[in-house]
Write a structure and sequence with these properties.
- The complex is a heterotrimer of chains A (214), B (271) and C (220).
- Chain A is an all-alpha fold.
- Chain A has a single domain, classed as MetI-like fold.
- Chain A has helices spanning 2-6, 8-42, 45-60, 63-76, 83-108, 112-120, 125-155, 167-175, 181-210.
- Chain B is of the alpha/beta class.
- In chain B, helix 3 (121-131) packs parallel to helix 5 (166-178), helix 4 packs across helix 5 and helix 5 runs parallel beside helix 6.
- In chain B, a hairpin with a 2-residue loop joins strand 11 (233-238) and strand 12.
- Chain B has a domain at 42-65 and 105-269: 3-Layer(aba) Sandwich (Rossmann fold), CATH 3.40.50.
Chain lengths: 214, 271, 220
């Protein structure tokens, strides 16, 4: 435990990086996903095929492979970029693909009768989306979005394998100096559990706020 | 028995609230669901359409407010061709904005109610007036309140659909359709999804509406008693064609075709 | 200017494919062990024993909120501290994946058990079957058909998760990629090829699982 106290600045920096990484990825990933989902639903057929390919590739390959490809590929192409930013991009690509599918699925799950009723009172396309379809789609997006965010927080640990000092890497660096890794892993487990479970609970609150008050 | 238009009747075929269907054909792929429908409905008339499922009556209704496209023939509501514009004898589909403008003048009440679950009753009813008729919020809400009062739900203005019974939801749906002040209202088997004890309250609202003669009503229903008491005309459809039409007494009391007789027999037995 | 040299991939294809096969073996092993864990836990969760219910609920909630990488490190580096030294890195990966997937499988099986209509179970009891026999002859066969789609999704996810074995030098596909890159630095070619291999395998697995589903769909 002495070791922990001696190195608490390192560990704290790692935690800060993990949180910063997660927040950025969640924000950018959600944005990319909203755009991607909309393109999948209403875009030009060529655009739809491109986005579909992007989504299917992201969903069919492991996150670690995407991280390696993007993280090492960007500098290899001659584009200078700080490690942290490359990590954010790699994770955002992953998040965006999954979020696009969530958006598409949520909008698709709004019953057809709703669109028909909106048409029957004379609303035009943009109005039908704004007042009838999207409000109902957003409610349906929240549970899978919360799940995705938890997966992103857990996935952030993979950047430790490309030497980005997140909480996982900084903790492992510290535990190298002791012969007893278990307490550190237990500490890590508690921290990540609090982060993920906490976010999940917040998500539950969000879900309740959007319910039809029934 | 087919009623054909006499030239003298033509002027009314263009009046506000009239519905004219001319030789309408519609195909779902290879299946011809509407095989040449001719129908004229005068303003304020209450027409009840009956027929077995698969007869095409729902499709006909949905063509009138262009929720379904049609391949040949014409549908003219209040003098306007619906869904298309004519160019050198061909039908060219209207853009969404114009379709929406036409739909604003034709109300529809659905079998599944289709109330917007994320809005209260008053918001459901006021949405159209606000966003399509561009009324200010206060005016739209006032109108919504009046409509909800008219269907007997003044105390449910702030309720969400999930809190309402089926009959109440359907009445809100009727209020929502009427709030747009349409000249024509379409009713697609609006009581078929309701528990028996809730059917009466919805039929009462429809009866009241019919007796006011303010709107043209096209009603699809299996409620034969309602048809007998309220309809000005009953139309029997089967297999994509209009087989018989006339006054309720003629069609329901004295059917002249075997198909209609067979259809009506079902309602004498198990009711 | 990056000029691609794809020969690197072709030359090393055998190693990559060997890694792919190992990944599949690990996935199958993990889902079998995880499946046993999940099945037992699901029955425990739906039993009448409150304590058992809470324990399983706790296990599920805890494991699902932990990063898989952490679980892998704990099994590989942490267990020896408790005297468990017989697991090599592949074994550790299988165990870690089994524990991780077990939590998700518990929920899948639980939903399946609850979905099997009580009527069938009561019919079983009424002909004198014990709880255990009802579970074995009535609930499980019916549940199996219901959960098959979720099971195939889990298998595919597990296969992708085997990539994390690279962190403890398990020579599956991703690790083979890391080695390839260390030797040749052909980043774009190797990782896109590896990505393509994962993609193709996932599609292949999905296709196969759909055929299995269709086979069992015949008896509803």
């Amino acid at each position: 435990m002495q070791v922990v106290l001696n190195n608490w600045t390192l560990l704290l920096a790692g935690l800060f990086n993990t949180i910063q990484l997660s927040v950025q990825v969640i924000l950018f990933g959600t944005l990319v996903g909203l755009i991607g989902g909309t393109l999948l639903l209403f875009g030009h057929p060529v655009i739809r095929t491109i986005v579909r390919a992007y989504v299917d590739i992201v969903r069919g390959t492991p996150l670690l492979v995407s991280i390696f490809l993007i993280f090492y590929g960007i500098p290899a192409l001659g584009i200078p970029m700080p490690a942290f930013s490359a990590a954010v991009i790699a994770l955002t690509v992953f998040a965006g693909g999954h979020m696009s599918e969530i958006v598409r699925g949520a909008v698709g799950s709004v019953p057809g009768g709703q669109t028909e009723a909106a048409m029957a009172i004379g609303l035009v396309f943009a109005q039908r989306l704004q007042y009838v379809v999207f409000p109902q789609a957003v409610r349906r997006m929240i549970p899978p979005w919360v799940n995705l965010c938890v997966e992103l927080i857990k996935g952030s640990t993979l950047v430790s394998l490309v030497s980005v000092t997140d909480l996982m890497l900084s903790t492992r660096q510290v535990l190298e100096r002791t012969a007893q890794p278990v307490p550190f892993y237990i500490l890590l487990a508690i921290v990540y559990f609090v982060l993920c479970y906490g976010f999940g609970r917040l998500g539950g609150q969000l879900e309740r706020r959007f319910a039809y008050y029934d | 028995m087919r009623i054909t238009t006499s030239p003298a009747a033509e002027p009314t075929a263009r009046a506000e609230g009239s519905v004219v269907v001319q030789d309408l054909h519609k195909w779902f792929g290879k299946f011809e669901v509407l095989q040449g429908i001719d129908l004229q409905v005068a303003p304020g008339e209450v027409v009840v359409i009956v027929g077995p499922s698969g007869s095409g009556k729902t499709t006909l209704l949905r063509c009138i407010n262009f929720l379904e496209e049609y391949q040949s023939g014409r549908i003219i509501v209040s003098g306007k061709l619906i869904g298309y514009r004519e160019h050198a004898g061909r039908l060219i589909k209207l853009p969404d904005r114009e379709q929406a403008a036409d739909r604003a003048n034709v109300g529809m009440v659905f079998q599944a109610f289709n109330l917007f679950p994320h809005m209260t009753s008053i918001d459901n009813v006021a949405l159209g007036p606000m966003k399509v008729r561009h009324l200010p919020r206060k005016v739209a809400h006032e109108r919504a309140r009046t409509m909800l009062d008219r269907v007997g739900l003044a105390d449910k203005v702030d309720s969400y659909p999930s809190r309402l019974s089926g009959g109440q939801q359907q009445r809100v749906a009727i209020a929502r359709a009427l709030a747009m002040e349409p000249k024509v209202v379409l009713f697609d088997e609006v009581t078929s999804a309701l528990d028996p004890e809730l059917v009466g309250e919805v039929l009462a609202v429809m009866r009241q509406l019919a007796q006011s003669h303010g709107v043209t009503m096209l009603v699809l229903t299996h409620e034969m008693l309602f048809a007998q008491e309220v309809a000005d005309r009953v139309v029997f459809m089967d297999a994509g064609k209009i087989v018989e039409q006339g006054s309720p007494a003629e069609v329901l009391g004295n059917p002249s075709t075997e198909r209609l007789r067979a259809f009506l027999k079902r309602f004498q037995a198990g009711r | 200017m990056y000029i691609t040299r794809w020969e690197v991939v072709w030359e090393n294809l055998p190693t990559l494919l060997a890694g792919l096969v190992l990944g599949l073996e690990v996935s199958v092993g993990s889902i079998m062990v995880g499946g046993i864990i999940g099945l037992l836990a699901a029955f425990a969760r739906t039993s009448s024993n409150r304590v058992l219910q809470q324990v399983v609920a706790g296990y599920v909630e805890f494991v699902r909120n932990l990063p898989l990488l952490l679980i892998i490190f704990f099994v590989y580096y942490g267990l020896p501290q408790f005297g468990i030294r017989f697991l090599d890195n592949v074994g550790s990966l299988v165990l870690a994946l089994a524990v991780y997937s077990g939590a998700y499988l518990t929920e899948i099986f639980r939903a399946g058990i609850l979905a099997v209509s009580k009527g069938f179970q009561e019919a079983g009891k009424s002909i004198g079957l014990t709880q255990f026999q009802v579970a074995r002859f009535v609930t499980m066969p019916l549940m199996f058909r219901i959960v098959l789609p979720s099971l195939s999704n889990t298998l595919i996810s597990l296969f992708k998760d085997t990539s994390l074995g690279a962190a403890i030098a398990v020579p599956e596909l991703t690790y083979a990629g890391m080695v390839l890159n260390t030797n040749t630095w052909r980043i774009l070619e190797s990782w896109s090829a590896i990505g393509a291999l994962y993609l193709a395998t996932c599609y292949g697995l999905a296709f196969m699982m759909r055929r299995v589903e269709r086979h069992y769909a015949s008896w509803a």
